[in-house]
Amino acid sequence: MKSYLISSTKKSSGKTIIATGISSILSRTDSLAVFKKGPDYIDPYWLSLASKVNCYNLDFFTMSNSEIKKLYKQMSYEKNISIIEGNKGLFDGISLDGGDSNASLAHLLKLEVILVIDCVGMTRGVAPLLKGYQEFDKKIKYKGIILNNIANDRHENKVINAINEFTKLKVIGSIHKNKQLTIMEKKLGLEPVFQNPYTKNIIKNISSVIKKSVDMKYLINKKTNNKDNKIPKVVLKKNIYSNLRIGVAFDSAFGFYYPDDINEFKRLGAKIIYFDTLKDKVLPKVDGLFIGGGFPERVADKLTKNTRMIKSISNYIESEMPVYAECGGLMYLCNSIITKTNKFKMTGIINADIKMLDKPIGRGYVELMVTNKHPWMLNKDLIKCHEFHYSDIKLKNSSYSYGFKVMRGYGTNGKHDGILYKNLIASYSHLRDTSQSRWVANFLDFVNNIKNNETKKDI
Question: Which pTM value belongs to this model?
Fold first, then answer.
């Protein structure tokens, strides 16, 4: 199997555009697996759309090395090519020793690196940059270099000549500055990608540029040294919760879900029932709800108009049914979402307003401790997760209890997260179901207990 890590020397160098285009092109002729380093939701969604397969996150903060290897092997088993998009620069990470860097991921999974270089204002200087990268970690295996933001043919020749003269690295792509590509790159981070009809055209246009600019045959033809492709055994626990139906909001407003978390619901026997908060009029018949993150503020006008769904969800929560909401889901369950120009009425279950901001108030990794008020989380140790929100919550009721104490990060107020109301818990933090936090099983057990209690009442 050919396994490539697409990385760069710094963030905002064009990795996502290039990874999206390469994944789209390769998926047409090869069986492909795609991954994203880190906790991000947006880049993986584009990679999924481009490759037509689920993109899985590989994150040192929430996963052990053995978990990363296991997930990677399971999802790349019997695939011809694996593409992993890095985050930030090749050697960047939280720890000084680089143990959580892209380079460490390359070593752990035996990946060849495709290094993207942002060539703005650079010619001969690319050579010492690359030689420094090679010297810094001599064990990294480079598949090739892709030059980005090349001004013109003259600029391209100068950069390539410098690389050829002073290094043995191969230039496998050269992407010239392109206004259309710049616009598309901005859209990758701005477009509400869930069920958006424009995404296919964006990917098509990106692929067209990449196909003309990158030596795709070289990526397909050259063999790698990665022969460790034995699939790890998966312990099946079917039918434990086969009596449960879990409603999951998936539409233009909500779509931030880790595919392996959804897989865990299914592995434990629960049936996932997707519903649309914008188009459906009532909730499906389910035993519990999971409303994930997304962009409710982008379609707030449509959400507020679907009053029947708002009423259906409100009645569901008021009747003490189990509900878990993350970030966008939390926003939807408050009184309103306030933008610069409008105030949109939401479900009003949580007595608070959501105010949209120009900059993120919560961004990055989070560490939580479970309080004794949390209805279903069993963790005694720190829970590692992440947050990313451009909104602040303004509570009008100070009597709410919280399911989490924030040890690192922001949450709802810098101290707490996980607002509790009846059998609802709503957080800004995004949980990840790994060995350090088996939240899916905990939640299903809670749902099951409530269902059994309701059944006993009926009897």
Answer: 0.93
